[in-house]
Amino acid sequence: MNPPNGPYTQGEGIKLISYCPLCNTQYNPLAARVLDEREDAHLVHIKCKSCNSSIVALVLNGAIGISSVGLVTDLTSDDVLKFKDAEEVTSNDVLDLHSELSNNQLLGYILKTVK
Ligand SMILES: [Zn+2]
Predict the structure, then answer these.
(1) What Rg value do the Cα atoms of the chain yield, rounded?
(2) Are 49 and 31 in contact (CB under 8 A)?
(3) pLDDT at residue 115 is higher than 70
(4) Is the pLDDT assigned to residue 100 strictly greater than 90?
(5) Residue 103 is part of which domain span?
(6) Ligand 1: distance of its center to the CA of 35 in Å?
(7) What is the mean pLDDT of residues 39-58?
(8) What is the pLDDT of residue 9?
(9) Within this chain, do residues 17 and 54 fall inside the same structural domain, yes or no?
(10) Residues 6+ apart with CB under 8 A from 19
(11) From the CA of 55, how far away is ligand 1's center (Å)?
């Protein structure tokens, strides 16, 4: 059974984590991996067995019931765990990389590091 395609409905959140948003295949609940949990929230990663896409969803158990927000990602569940507490890339990081690239030192540095 395919989920109805239509405007946002009450069960949208549940629908999102029941079906792959890209190919509409129903997820196997056993394929969901809970990455993090608190009393009122779970961070879940689900990989679609049909199209190999993944979603990360935050499932919230709030005062008005269960809701979720999810996004399609190319991260594996291990990637999510690796990056979720990592520091964000700042504009200074981008400027540093740009200046390293500009003076052609970066490639030499990387090659030296790899050897
Ligand atoms: Zn899919």
Answers:
(1) 20
(2) yes
(3) no
(4) no
(5) 87-115
(6) 20
(7) 92
(8) 47
(9) yes
(10) 2, 3, 25, 26, 27
(11) 10
Distance 40 CA to ligand 1 centre (A): 28
The continuous run of DSSP H or E covering 111 comes out as: helix 106-114
> Ligand 1: distance of its center to the CA of 38 in Å?
28
Residue 73 three-state SS: strand
Q: How many domains does the chain have?
A: 2
Residues 52 and 64 in one domain: yes
Q: Residue 53: which region, alpha, beta or left (left: phi > 0; alpha: psi -120 to 50)?
A: beta
- In which element (H, E) is residue 71 found? strand 65-73
Q: How confident is the model at residue 48 (pLDDT cuts 50, 70, 90)?
A: very high
Query: Could you please report the per-residue DSSP string of 20-63?
Result: -TTT-PBPPGGGEEEEEEETTEEEEEEE-TTT--EEEEEEEEET
